[in-house]
Amino acid sequence: MKTIQQDFQVSFSYGVHFTEGLFDKQNTLLADLLRQKSGGTGAAKVLFVLDEGVAKAHPQLTTDIAAYAAHYADTLTAVAAPLLVPGGEEVKNKPAVLNQVLEAVHRFGVCRHSYLVAIGGGAVLDMAGLAAAIAHRGIRHIRVPTTVLAQNDSGVGVKNSMNAFGKKNFLGTFAPPFAVLNDSCFLLTLEDRDWRGGISEAIKVALIKDAAFYEQIKQQASRLVAREMEPMQELIFRCAEMHVEHIGSGDAFEFGSSRPLDFGHWAAHKLEQITNYELRHGEAVAIGIALDVTYSKLAGMLSEAECNDILSLLCELGFDIYIPELSEGLDTPAGKLHILQGLQEFREHLGGQLTIMLLEQIGKGVEVHHLDEGLVTEAVNQLKHWHTEKVLLPTS
Amino acid sequence: MKTIQQDFQVSFSYGVHFTEGLFDKQNTLLADLLRQKSGGTGAAKVLFVLDEGVAKAHPQLTTDIAAYAAHYADTLTAVAAPLLVPGGEEVKNKPAVLNQVLEAVHRFGVCRHSYLVAIGGGAVLDMAGLAAAIAHRGIRHIRVPTTVLAQNDSGVGVKNSMNAFGKKNFLGTFAPPFAVLNDSCFLLTLEDRDWRGGISEAIKVALIKDAAFYEQIKQQASRLVAREMEPMQELIFRCAEMHVEHIGSGDAFEFGSSRPLDFGHWAAHKLEQITNYELRHGEAVAIGIALDVTYSKLAGMLSEAECNDILSLLCELGFDIYIPELSEGLDTPAGKLHILQGLQEFREHLGGQLTIMLLEQIGKGVEVHHLDEGLVTEAVNQLKHWHTEKVLLPTS
Q1: What ipTM score was computed for the predicted complex, to two decimals?
Q2: pTM of the predicted protein model
Q3: Domain residue extents for chain B
């Protein structure tokens, strides 16, 4: 018996760039990026994939993209008009859309040194990112996230995905993007739900890692609610920075069982599914955080004052911290919350031992390997009570 | 305008193990591997995916696998009887089979720390490897290659794939396996075509990198034709070793445009497609080598004696160095070989600048960025002549 041992490392590198008016002719960011890496082989081929919702909110966008490509014709060639795809989580349930993107890559001869530029919310980026990752074993993928959530969390990381067999993100790969281009102009046209939605991911990462950032969000809460751009840009930058640091300094491709950035997510993923994705990801994460924070308090890990402080902030920002679906299943003969199935699915998705992040204090997460089902039920009931009675929570 | 820069490395590690009788109860290789990495969370879940052709040639195999799992029940749990899938290149054209494997991963709760063990020829490993790579963003994949080609080349590397839109390997990822287990017992039942087929990849790697290995193959040619196991095991080991070394020391995920191990492959891929995959990969590679070697001679890079030496060796081993499909298209009005389209498709698949490996001398490849279409046609005509006239080639 003989063995050949293979050991090697692969280096990945990309920038998350913050800009305004990405497709203004004066804005050289995209052209500079493409020029830098084209290796002198002429204009780079670019396939644009565009979220229909974004196209609708920005009717001039396709014209701007065409004008931009014409202006920088020596640097980039748009292989066709942007391919329009449906936005929102539903697109991740549609293999036909994924196939449409792959077919365009094939038809227009987009190669491994050409580019797929996806413009849209997190779901469109997830879907288009998977297409880019598996076509020719990976073509260059540039993400242009258009929501708060995508700009500060999902869009800056290394994952892509589709849903399958009723399981969120069942299909996907780890595939670092070629670049991420965060254009704050896209935030101006967001619905309130989506403006707010991404804030929950910032609260999440602040809670487990950075008490000062949590304080900053708290100080700016009323301005965020009033849709002021400056505090939102600060929030997005810091949140994106923390995500990027976390990925770069740790287990980027998640070979282990620990995924601290999924604080609040085990319940969130299941809630999205139970509500047929009518609850959006950021909204589900807010409820997931509320649940795990309340659980942390009930388990004696987190002070009541800090727990209430967090729930109050979520409410102030306009998040629901409870929806009836959270209690679903409890009054059936089995008498078990459906949400608890999310624990098993979370473990299965991550692999190995169940590992859940809870909170010890604001700014300090702690991992556990077991949740008590009775305590989860009690936490759900407390959230229901607070939500229904609109009890004013005592804060620190 | 601000930028967050992300730079990180990911480490990969796996062993290519050579064994006999992998599923004999006395053989602890697989059980040891699973025990090593299970992290003390009990028996590892294993989904076996089995090439129907292998199951037919080894009727006792499914029983042996079940008995092995029962014997090592503390270490591994087979989640079901092996999932049988069609073998041969055709399976890579069948998304339904890929979906069947994914569905089994879902149904049996195979997680990121569980295992998909695929047993079969290169095509089955390519397909099952893609399923393993995209389910939950990658479950642990153990390859058990059963052909010479898969044991010494495709099965030991980091790629997987499916065909789509009429393009070979259009879909796929770079995803290092968890381990590769080469069991020489599987070679005993191979058809002559498959026994011979994998030898072409050994000749390929020898030609571009290792003259001594080329001499070794030449010395053992008659024993290889007589299907002696010892020289074949030596050939497979050295060929696998060179592939592993090449991947580990270079551009493992092929971010550049150079792919030296694809010597002879631009024409081979196209020939497989033109013949509807009736020509098998190793057979196509032999013709691709013959073509590029003849081209190298016509371009004044390689001596006539060495060119003839290589063609003679291919013939001695039983390879065709020409088939009529190689000339296809030449007598149409356009008058251009269909095979030449393979150049463009090869460039597109790899990305960037066309980069083709040619030969300067035996053991020394050299990369060029252009092939002369007239010379390719002349090379095809020379191969046709030699093949038709059975001219005895003068060797060094």
Answers
A1: 0.93
A2: 0.94
A3: 17-189, 196-389
